[in-house]
Input
Amino acid sequence: MKRLVAVLIVCVMSVSAMGDVLFSDDFSDGDSIGWTEHYSPAVTVATDTVIGDGYAMGVVANAAEARSPVTSNFALTAEKLASVGDTLSLSFDFHLSKVGDKAKGFRFGLLKDDYDGYFVRLSTGTATGSSLSFDSAGSSGQILGGTFVNNPDAVPTSGSMVSISDMDKHTIELALTRGLVDVGGVDTKVMYMSVTLDGSSTNTLTGAYSVTAFSLWTLDTVAFASSTDSDFVIDNVNVDFTPIPEPATLALLGIGMLGMVRKRK
Output
């Protein structure tokens, strides 16, 4: 009986953990095909000894521009983040190839059509003030060098994030989860954001946004942006979608396990 209960727990956990890989690039093909360059950064794919597992993509900012982003689109066959509890996550390895004192100089996130969406502004060198950010500015989106239109920083935000002042390898995990909260008796849709550096609970920022625009639940672009003070190298870029298990799926699992219990009796 104990073994059966253990099997049930493992099955429920497995159902909860099932997800889809929407995007993956380890640059093992030796090129940057599929990535779009904005404002003419210098982009190269070559072996990288710091990350140390083969090819990686380096981005050197155009000195004439405030930021030099690179973006890549991933195809969506259906709306993601459609249900409360659904999570879209971005993970990658990186290191700076140039370290300057730049507040919020290294930026990355998940967007819609290259512009609207959610991103992180990570400070470098001795600068401080890393933040979680949201933009719905259309073609002048902040990650591409424009100005903010809507709530630049997540409120409330908790936690802290160190500035990157070295050229060592680091790992980032950014998670976006759809939520629902009661605001004055009204159910309000929110996007919870969380970013973690090197898996450390002491280097984590969390926040939330109220979201009304449908397009901001259907993100389809991964984006990175350098400044003239924070050139970078990235590798092992992955975007994953983890849906909340449907009640019907869990119910069927429960019925099946109940049948097994009865059969054993």
About this structure: The longest strand covers residues 170-183.
